[in-house]
Amino acid sequence: MSKESVIEDARKAVLTYNAKAAVAASEKAIEEKLDPVEVIQYGFTAGITEVGDLYEQKKLFLPHIMAAAAAMNAGVEKLTPELEKLGKKADEGLGGVVICSIEGDIHSIGKDIVAIMLKVAGFNVENIGRDVPLDEIVAACIKYKPIAVGTSALMTSTMVGQKTFEEKLKKAGIRDKLLTNVGGAPVTQQWADEIGADLYTENASDATAKFTAAVEKK
């Protein structure tokens, strides 16, 4: 089976809410010694992005999102050991990162993949969940003293919270003590520049590269 076929199977598994098919696609990827990052990014993530777009268009509803996420989680979980073989152990300590989906946003799978990839790269990640109130994110930053904090927004209605979050970090007196990263389907580099975020990342691979580069500059 070709790499393209396995990736397409992974994408379709998410679109059809089929956890068994997702696991099967991951098992095939392992058997064929495919790059797990590519399978996740172009297969599972592509599928969940399509589901998210349909949700935004009100063609799908929350149960569909949850079912698609469950399928994706099953596939990604199967690939996680392969991901870990590619990278460093967290105890090598590139630094701490707090990551979450912004207040009002129930999407989680994208930031969960980013969290996995950052752990593989050697960061100590605190994944504090989805739909996290802004004040709780600030509190987590105070508690864990990370070198960076990443917020994900999959809807235009929730991404505005990323701007408010920047302001709350300033009020708490910790904005200059960490890097801020914004991501999510509607988020752009222009938005990051507008609100004063340090980094914009498009996907998990992009996040890993930019976080690592930012740490090396410090």
Question: Secondary-structure blueprint of this entry?
Answer:
Elements (H helix, E strand, L loop, with lengths): L2 H13 L3 H13 L4 H21 L5 H25 L9 E6 L7 H13 L2 E4 L6 H11 L3 E5 L3 H16 L7 E5 L5 H7 L3 E2 L3 H14 L1
Parallel strand pairs: 1-2, 1-3, 3-4, 4-5
Helix pairs in contact: 1-2, 1-3, 1-4, 2-4, 3-4, 4-5, 5-9, 6-7
Tell me the fraction of residues in β-strands, as a range: 5-15%
Shape verdict: globular
Under CATH, the topology of the largest domain can be stated as Rossmann fold
Give the CATH level 1 class of the largest domain: Alpha Beta
Give the domain tally.
2
> What is the helical fraction, as a range of percent?
55-70%
With helices defined by DSSP (H or I, 4 residues minimum), what is the helix count? Answer: 9
Instruction: Tally the beta strands.
Output: 5
What is the CATH homologous superfamily assignment of the largest domain?
Answer: Cobalamin-binding domain
Give the CATH architecture of the largest domain. 3-Layer(aba) Sandwich
Q: Tell me the major beta sheet.
A: 5 strands, parallel
N-to-C SSE series?
Answer: HHHHEHEHEHEHEH
Our Rg estimate from Cα atoms comes to 17 Å
Main sheet strand line-up: 2-1-3-4-5
Q: Uncertain runs with pLDDT below 50, 5 residues or more?
A: none
Q: What structural class results from the helix and strand content?
A: alpha/beta
Q: State mean pLDDT (0 to 100 scale).
A: 90
Terminal residue distance = 44 Å
What key attributes describe this structure?
alpha/beta, 218 residues, single chain, Rossmann fold, 61% helix, 2 domains, five-stranded parallel β-sheet, Methyltransferase, Methionine Synthase (B12-binding Domains), Chain A, domain 1
